[in-house]
Automatic annotation (TrEMBL):
SUPFAM superfamilies documented for this protein: UDP-Glycosyltransferase/glycogen phosphorylase (SSF53756)
Domain named UDP-N-acetylglucosamine 2-epimerase: residues: 30-372
Family: Belongs to the UDP-N-acetylglucosamine 2-epimerase family.
Keyword terms: Isomerase
Superkingdom, taxonomy of origin: Bacteria
EC number: 5.1.3.14
Protein name: UDP-N-acetylglucosamine 2-epimerase (non-hydrolyzing)
InterPro entries: UDP_GlcNAc_Epimerase_2_dom, WecB-like
Pfam family, one: Epimerase_2
Keyword Secreted in annotation: no
């Protein structure tokens, strides 16, 4: 009898990291009845990823609403997933990481009585307020999960400290590397057509160092973003030979300070958020990356790109310890000084860009599917 697997996600980062798992399960239709449910916690950005990976969900809850809050989103996900779980009656439900979709789907799965499988399990900052609400989302999923797929040994140790049975844990590496390998190969093909990438080629000038900037996290809103913008302004002034390319998040708490403080600076290129393939292409062209994104901390080292992380804490300490990323928080002077060092000190840059990526070799999805296949 085929095992029934339901893969649930709702945001663009989840979609990117779960897409290769969907594709891997779909290789074995004789073993698995695999279905995809999207909550559409993000709508447009989610759809771009589904299109790129050629995934068509069997269930689309379409829950994104203007000015959505955590109360209504959590309730809506649980209520609407009830119908999906009752319709399909899956044996295994897969969730990813730390989103509100992950937390709410975990609860719904528990209520239904299916086995919960947590991809990218075991990440912890041990501060329930940072990142908010992600730290508590992943901890709740961890308590409910039956099977845990941490990306690293350190994440596994966190789970063991929480008394998770070793037989229910499999260290896999991060599925984002699987996605990156697929995506970077696809966008590099001569026959791949993408209007956004064509526009970026016109924006990015040959011979100039590209500093890719991304920033959106809730805990940085307000004074944090003002400090970030002041640092970027100083970098642009002190390094006119470099271009700062910043796809600006649509959240007005981000766009307002960014455009007020950085617009009209010649070597700061403020652009709209990019689709995943265009972002992968731009990462590959970049000299270095300044970000508050968790996923970028994992992806960039595989491309040999040093990363400065604009966060006070990270649930990905392996990257800090490996030397592939440096935590700079929202401290204006730290952001500038570390960027300045990477731009001026070639030995330091080469050492950082050559570090081994601690997040795996791109075989995470294969390991997960084999694990589920071998369960009784």
């Amino acid at each position: 009898m085929r095992k029934k697997t339901l893969i649930v996600f709702g945001t663009r980062p989840e979609a990117i990291k779960m897409a290769p798992l969907v594709k891997e399960f779909q290789k074995y239709p004789e073993k698995f009845d695999t279905r995809v449910c999207v909550t559409a916690q993000h709508r447009q950005m989610l759809d771009q990823v589904l299109d790129f990976f050629e995934i068509e969900p069997q269930y689309d809850l379409d829950l994104m609403r203007p000015n959505q809050n955590l109360y209504t989103l959590t309730a809506d996900i649980i209520i609407h997933l009830k119908e999906v779980l009752e319709d399909f009656s899956p044996d295994y439900v897969f969730v990813h990481g730390d989103t509100s979709t992950t937390m709410a789907a975990s609860l719904a799965t528990f209520y239904q009585g299916a086995k919960l499988c947590h991809v990218e399990a075991g990440l912890r900052t041990f501060n329930k307020h940072s990142p908010f609400p992600e730290e508590m989302n992943r901890r709740i999923a961890g308590v409910i999960s039956d099977y845990h797929f941490p990306p690293t040994r350190k994440a596994e140790l966190n789970l063991l400290e929480e008394k998770i049975e070793p037989k229910n844990i499999l260290v896999t590496g991060n599925t984002v590397i699987d996605a990156l390998n697929y995506s970077s190969g696809k966008v590099a093909r001569p026959d791949f057509q993408d209007k956004e990438i064509d526009n970026l080629k016109n924006l990015v000038k040959n011979g100039r160092k590209i500093i890719l900037v991304t920033g959106h996290r809730r805990e940085n809103h307000g004074r944090g973003f003002e400090e970030i913008c002041l640092a970027l302004k100083q970098i642009a002034k002190e390094h006119p030979q470099a271009d700062l390319v910043y796809p600006v998040h649509l959240n007005p708490n981000v766009r307002r300070p960014v455009y007020e403080m950085l617009d009209n600076i010649p070597n700061v290129k403020l652009i709209d958020p990019l689709s995943y393939p265009a972002f992968v292409w731009l990462m590959a062209q970049s000299y270095m990356i300044i970000t508050d994104s968790g996923g970028v901390q994992e992806e960039a080292p595989s491309l040999g790109k040093p990363v400065l992380v604009m966060r006070e804490t990270t649930e990905r300490p392996e990257a800090v310890e490996a030397g592939t990323v440096i935590l700079v928080g929202t401290d204006r002077s730290k952001i500038f000084l570390e960027t300045d060092r990477l731009l001026k000190n070639q030995v330091h840059y080469d050492e950082m860009s050559a570090k081994h990526n601690p997040y795996g070799d791109g075989t995470a999805c294969k390991k997960i599917v084999e694990f589920i296949d071998n369960l009784e």
